[in-house]
Amino acid sequence: MNIKLEQQMIKLPLVHPFETSFGIQKDKYAVIIKLTDDEGNVGWGETIADEYPGYSYETKETVWLIQRDFLIPQFLTKFDHDFPEIADVYSAFQHVRGHNFAKTGLEAAYWSLRADRERKSLGQYYGSTKNEIPTGVSIGIQESIKELISRIEFFVDQGYKRIKMKIKPGWDITVVKEVRDVYPDIPIMVDANSAYSLKDKDKTIMRSLDRFDLMMIEQPLAFDDMLDHKLLQSEIETPICLDESIHSVNHAIQAINYDCARIINIKPARVGGYSKAIEIAENLGSGKVWLGGMLETGIGRMHNLFVQARDEYSIPGDTSGSNRYFERDIINPQVTVNKNGTISLPKGKNLGVEVDEEFIKQKQTRYAEYRR
Ligand SMILES: [Mg+2]
Questions:
Q1: pLDDT at residue 21, as a whole number
Q2: Distance in Å, CA 316 to ligand 1 centroid
Q3: More reliable by pLDDT, 7 or 79
Q4: Cα dihedral angle (346, 349, 350, 356), rounded to 10 degrees?
Q5: Which domains are delineated in the chain?
Q6: Are 269 and 275 in contact (CB under 8 A)?
Q7: Sign (positive or negative) of CA dihedral 166, 255, 239, 183
Q8: Which of the residues are catalytic?
Q9: CA of 187 to the centre of ligand 1 (A)
């Protein structure tokens, strides 16, 4: 079968700059993968493409190059005959270590093509069992606590069921306390993006957070650490959730088995793709996993939603409405949050939404085409 693969980099402005302990992000880049087969069936995948090697070593430049020079040639050579099961796509990438973001964009496009070809919802491939999923919102570091509380109010009014706040030294205990005073009952979690250490001063901060009844503290220590997290977990009650440290199914299982963490934030792109995100959930079960966001555009957002409709993803994830990040998303209709804080999943085939190709073209900064 002939296949056309289009690799398109797009740049969308964010409605609000997003600040974490890495810095401030003003635009969202993504490498969109479109597959078209002989019969006109189409598959869409999104590659996370950060501007800076902050969250991950991968950037918009590395994902483009690794896909172009190594992954796409292998993927097209092995296409279809070698992928009886969708999870087998990963075998085409086995000679490339790391670069999980780059791999995931291609794998996602393949899942979507299969759904299009077989006229089924992507949810059927991802094992979705729910029609709507509860969702939370992730709020970056703000100029002031007052500003933060007004941002939280804005999202709570829209129905979001869980608030995740970014913290860093100097923006932690007092901030969490003030938010807790205003919102005594709302589920809150904090994400430190590795801004702390095992020094006494930091451990005291982590211990002090125990009294705010947080759902979890995400990635307080080094981005590549497991064992120090185990030490910290033994000294605090709040469950530790690992994000940056987990790059494979094995990492996730080991982290839980050795009590380095009690919860895993699964970002499919970080763990090597959607089949890996499913495998981790199957291994760990309900209540131990949730799905984090990487400010995805509509295509990645839809893929993420269908995975979160699996039973194991019982903790609300980070997937918010399109308008949380973009004035206009690249899909129609855009993702919206219901008044009760859930997102409803579309029932149509494939992604269940239209991809706005006109808009993608307008926002395109680079384009390449490959054929087999
Ligand atoms: Mg995180």
A1: 62
A2: 14
A3: 7
A4: -70
A5: 3-118+355-371 (3.30.390.10), 125-344 (3.20.20.120)
A6: no
A7: positive
A8: 166, 267
A9: 17
- pLDDT, tens only, 64-109: 999 999 999 999 998 877 777 777 888 889 899 999 999 999 999 9
8 Å CB contact between 229 and 260: yes
Does residue 19 carry a pLDDT above 80?
Answer: no
The predicted pLDDT at position 18 comes to: 77
CA of 191 to the centre of ligand 1 (A): 6
CA distance 372 to 358: 25
Tokens (6 digits) for 88: 């087998």
* 332: its two tokens: 């129609």
The helix or strand, by DSSP H or E, that contains position 75, with its residue range, turns out to be: helix 72-78
β-strand partners of 135: 317
Nearest Cα neighbor of 75 from 63, 89, 65 is 89
160 alpha carbon – ligand 1 mean position (Å):
18
State the Rg of the chain over Cα.
20
Token pair belonging to 365: 């900064």
For a pLDDT cut of 90, what percent of the chain falls above it? 84
- What average pLDDT does range 288-299 have in this prediction? 94
CA dihedral angle for residue 322, residue 325, residue 327, residue 332, rounded to 10 degrees? -20
Q: Tell me, in angstroms, the distance from the centre of ligand 1 to residue 271's CA.
A: 13
Instruction: Report the distance separating Cα 344 and Cα 210, nearest Å.
Output: 34
Residue 167: name the closest of 137, 200, 142 by CA.
Answer: 142
Q: Is the peptide bond before 316 cis (omega within 30 degrees of 0)?
A: no
* Cα 219 to middle of ligand 1, angstroms: 6
Which residues touch 329 (CB under 8 Å, ≥6 apart)? 297, 298, 301, 322, 335, 356
Residue 371 has pLDDT above 80, yes or no: yes
Chain centroid to CA 329: 17
Q: Are 26 and 13 in contact (CB under 8 A)?
A: yes
Are 366 and 137 in contact by the 8 Å Cβ rule? The answer is: no
C-beta separation of 66 from 79 below 8 A = no
